[in-house]
Amino acid sequence: MQKIVYTQDNLQLLNRSFLFGDSVWVSFFIRNGQIIMAEESYFFLMASMRKMRLNIPLTYTLEFFQELFQNEVLSKGVQNGIVQLMAYRIQDEKPLSKSETAFFFEIEESEDILDIKSNIELDLIKEINVNANLLSNIRVHSAENIYAQIYAKENDLDDVIFLNPNKKIARSIFGNLLFLQDNVIKIPKQTEGAYISPLMENFVTFIHKNKLAEIEEAEIIAFESQKAEEILRISDEKGVHSVSKIRNKTFENTRFSEMVQKWAENFI
Asked: Right CATH number for 3-108 from 3.40.1050.10, 3.30.1490.20, 3.40.50.720, 3.30.470.10?
């Protein structure tokens, strides 16, 4: 397994991402030696940069990034992996609104990103919550995520469930949660603090088009996590995982496994 790191401007130490977290993260997906969902990821990158008021160079086209990944990733033999791309504001003498933008990305080869990787254990975290505003839906610097990762490690958890200030389920540290009960998949609304996720949106669209289940964006109280029959975590950063346990409740993964398998086959 090789790891590739690419920097557009040699990533100076004193950059605004390092100093202030002035950056956005977006994932691109490599599967079987090809870029998949490239348009969805690209448009999410553009939307995230606009929300952070980052200047978007005219060179940042879909074709530019496709060619870049072809030359820097695919040509080096990477078959499967997630490109973690960070766009950030350069530390220069210009006003923030005029500062130039650069990017960095890294990718490490992995297994098929459309396979369910493993089972994970979660729990609620109550000491802190996450907001539900314009910037809550994109991947930016989050002190809450850092705190929660340490909390999860100390409590032998793989991830935690964040609530928003209204005590509704928002997301996990790394991605979004999907709750299956009967024939309905409930997903926290983006207005509740859920991430915008090209990977999850592609999966949900596939489920809807093929009538595999009913999709419901909802305000979900914490107790509903205990009522679900199956729970799936989809993370643009980590991939797809089944949730096997929350507190004392264990969950199956049969139906979600079947859905994910059909979704993956759709890309062949």
From this structure: 3.30.470.10
